[in-house]
Design brief:
Number of helices: 7
Radius of gyration: 17 Å
Strand content: 15-25%
Strand order of the largest sheet: 1-4-5-6-7-8
Low-confidence stretches: none
Mean pLDDT: 96
Structural class: alpha/beta
Oligomer: single chain
Largest sheet: 6 strands, parallel
Shape: globular
Number of strands: 8
Distance between the termini: 33 Å
Length: 201
């Protein structure tokens, strides 16, 4: 475990994985999270999560954490409380998580950075509302995505944005438009994935 890391998004080593919540109420049609964890969101308390982090730091020397939650920031107050516990206890850690752009505010991003967040993963998937609606994904305004990703990068939180090529309803033209727009987004990292039909999705 001493070699576990999450390069290049956070430099801390070793990095532990934590599951702080399960399930996702959004139910996007392409996503296996809902199929293997359910649509009901169940979350551990901020105190419970911090206790695990503190134990991993003191007992094993972990310096970073990768939250594998499908939707880490669904409850703002819970995440703010976790940040406060990390800050109040002067726990020196870096961490990364995945969420939707509209589930963050600039104020929360500031607190996340203060607590040690150094990277956030965002699923963007496609920029065309009609394509997203065909896969039951709730579209997010492109201006909002741009605002949140740019602000994260501005304060020092690296971002990784995921796009899916070949979704139902997409064409060569829409794929090209999505790729061109993704270049304007300027995250630290972009991942282009090919649409894959998993059982149940």
């Amino acid at each position: 475990y001493k070699n576990y890391r999450y390069m290049p998004m956070i430099n801390a080593k070793p990095v532990a994985t934590i599951l702080a919540s399960r399930g996702c109420p959004y139910g996007c049609g392409y996503c296996p999270y809902t199929k293997n964890q359910g649509a009901e969101w169940r979350a551990r308390s901020a105190e419970n999560i911090f206790k695990e982090m503190e134990n991993d730091v003191k007992q094993y020397g972990f310096k970073g954490f990768f939250f594998r939650d499908p939707l880490f920031s669904l409850d703002f107050k819970r995440i703010e409380r976790l940040c406060e516990l990390i800050i109040e206890n002067k726990t020196k850690v870096s961490f990364v998580f995945e969420t939707r752009p509209e589930l963050l505010t600039k104020q929360l991003i500031d607190k996340l950075y203060q607590a040690g967040c150094r990277s956030i993963n965002f699923g963007v998937e496609d920029i065309h509302a009609e394509v997203l609606q065909k896969i039951n994904r709730r579209p997010v305004r492109l201006e909002k995505i741009m605002e949140i990703v740019n602000y994260c990068e501005e304060v020092g939180i690296r971002t990784s944005c995921f796009f899916i090529l070949g979704l139902p309803g997409s064409t060569r033209q829409t794929i090209k438009e999505t790729i061109e727009w993704s270049k304007k987004l300027l995250p630290s990292q972009i991942e282009y994935k090919v649409a894959t039909p998993f059982p149940g999705t």
